[in-house]
Amino acid sequence: MGSPLSPIISNIYMEHFEQKSLSSFLYTSKEWKRFIDDVFAKWSHGKELLDKFLAHINSLSKYIKFTIEVEKDNQIPFLDIFLTKKNGKMGFQIFRKKTQRKIFAC
User: Fold this and answer.
1) Can you say whether residue 42 is alpha, beta or left, with left for phi > 0 and alpha for psi between -120 and 50 degrees?
2) What's the pLDDT at 30?
3) Which of the residues 30, 66, 69, 82 could staple to 95 if both were Cys, CB 3.0 to 4.6 A apart?
4) Residues 46-98 pLDDT 10s
5) Would you say the pTM of this structure is higher than 0.85?
């Protein structure tokens, strides 16, 4: 097991990394919320600039790499919930990832 300080140090480093990456790019997201290693962000500058921003933050460290999941049909999974935007309001429900289950008969 690792040190009990590991989560604290990781969180401090990620805060530093976020400040560095967000302040060093011309455009920023309207909202940026992080929980451990997941980020919820609202981006209003178009797909092209979003791709450039992703390349920018991924270029800052060889150890930390981000991926993007874009909402589809006003819905997006985040953590263990499924966020839904309807009539300008946010709703949610429990989200379960699809898994492949194999049942073996003996």
Assistant:
1) beta
2) 84
3) 82
4) 999 999 999 999 999 999 999 988 888 888 888 888 888 888 788 888 866 67
5) no
Q: Are 75 and 82 in contact (CB under 8 A)?
A: yes
* Same domain, residue pair 92 and 50: no
Confirm if 64 and 72 have CB atoms less than 8 A apart: no
SS3 of residue 22 by DSSP: helix
CA 36 to chain centre: 10
Query: In terms of domains, do 60 and 75 share one?
Result: no
The structure tokens listed for 36 are: 């451990």
Residue 23 and residue 17 in contact, taking contact as beta carbons nearer than 8 Å? no
31: containing domain: 1-66
